Amino acid sequence: MTTIETVRGPIAVEDIGVTLTHEHIFTKNPEIEQNWPDPEWEGEEPMIQKAVDALTALKANGIDTMVDLTVPGLGRYIPRIQQVAARVDLNIVVATGFYTFKDLPSFFQTHGPGLMVDGPELMSEFFVRDITEGIGDTGVKAVFIKIATDEFGITPGVERVMNAAAEAHKATGATISTHTHVEHFTGRLQQEFFRKAGVPLENVLIGHCGDSTDLDYLKELMDNGSTIGLDRFGMEQVLRDDRRIEMLVQLIELGYAEKITLSHDAGIFSINTPPSWRSRVSPNWHHANISDNILPAIRERGVSEESIRQIMVTNAARVLTGRR
């Protein structure tokens, strides 16, 4: 029986259920916040309780599993997530990787092959350790490997992360989940890079594709083998949900239901996009938007329960297990 690692430990893949594949719970910046506390961070216990309440309601509304792609670079702190997971029935899956659009922090600029502190690429070692042994001393094992390419493309720093991700995938079989910038078609860059690095594109989940209305671009990514994430529902400052729904329905009608996952890229708290800003600019950008609004809307458009299950359960289980 295949199992999937969650924050509470391994579960059978059959128990993964309806899954959101690209989310965040807490996006933090400890160095900033330790020196200049964020006024919207209400404290550890109140914010943990806020997450518990939201995820409990989400579970009651039919969501069984959430993938939290908060990795280093976004303030990953697993002990906090463990406290949330211990108080909810919903499964939480976490990731390894590193989040940067351009440069790496000074530690990685001094440590590595040919650098001042010469040695092997530590990121590869870190990613594999997170997946095979656990993150820090928590015992919680990562499932996905997260990388990002934005408008800057594959910079030297991003290239190091992507190389480390490729090596970690080859060592573990874990799916690589990505952040992209659709206006710069960086999903294409990712596919080209990982193909050359020996990573099967079936094991690369290309994220943020729901920001695009370029049907040919999205079909190209899927025809090349990757699953795509239409994973920013509610982020209407980028693209309205009605247009995201239109693209989703078109892709299903074209026969691509087996290559799609859905999510929000939302969070309970983010220092980068604080709650007050989100509520003002994109009030539907929250973890319940798909279950409350998007799935009912595509049902009204004639999308079958079979297709919805394919996307929300079967595809999610496939990328979580790393199976092609």
TrEMBL record:
Cofactor(s) demanded: a divalent metal cation
Binding sites annotated in the UniProt record for Zn(2+) 2: K146, H179, H208
Gene3D superfamilies found in the cross-reference section: Metal-dependent hydrolases
Post-translational modification N6-carboxylysine, affected residues: K146
Binding site for Zn(2+) 1: H22, H24, K146, D265
Keywords (A to Z) from UniProt: Hydrolase, Metal-binding
Family matches, as Pfam families: PTE
Cofactor binding notes: Binds 2 divalent metal cations per subunit.
Superkingdom classification of source: Bacteria
GO molecular function, one term: zinc ion binding
Family according to the record: Belongs to the metallo-dependent hydrolases superfamily. Phosphotriesterase family.
Name of the featured protein: Phosphotriesterase
Organism: Subtercola vilae
